[in-house]
Amino acid sequence: MALAVGFAAVLAGAGVALVRRMAPEASGSGIPHVEGVLHNRFSFRWFRVLWVKVIGGIMSIGGGLALGREGPTIQIGACIGRAGGLWFGSNPEEERTMIAVGAAAGLSAAFNAPSPG
């Protein structure tokens, strides 16, 4: 029992440390950061945020910490949308649209809602 509690504490602490050191913008729900990116107020290190959010979330949940439902999926979706915008060589306006589409897909996934095609 004590080993399990200790393991959970180490896992949760490692998840928190990963987020704080590697990508502080991945902390919290992520929605204010995505809004700031869409309004050109923040830069977007999408690759780092994506992996830190996914791995840090897994470690935090494994450690017993609470993780929101909508915020992380919105931020992960926005990161994937940004990757798509960069992949297709879009202009800045199209990249912002791709970020918004990715965020909308993340919100849709959080609630198991179908995405219209």
UniProtKB/TrEMBL annotation:
Gene Ontology cellular-component terms listed: plasma membrane
InterPro entries: Cl-channel_core, ClC
Transmembrane segments: 45-67
Transmembrane helix found in the keyword field: yes
Subcellular compartments: Membrane
SUPFAM superfamilies on file: Clc chloride channel
This protein's name: H(+)/Cl(-) exchange transporter ClcA
UniProt keyword Nucleotide-binding present: no
GO MF term list: voltage-gated chloride channel activity
Lineage, broadest ranks: Bacteria, Pseudomonadati, Planctomycetota, Planctomycetia, Gemmatales
Keywords: Chloride, Ion transport, Membrane, Transmembrane, Transmembrane helix, Transport
A Pfam match: Voltage_CLC
Domain of life: Bacteria
Record-linked Gene3D superfamilies: Clc chloride channel
Membrane topology value: Multi-pass membrane protein
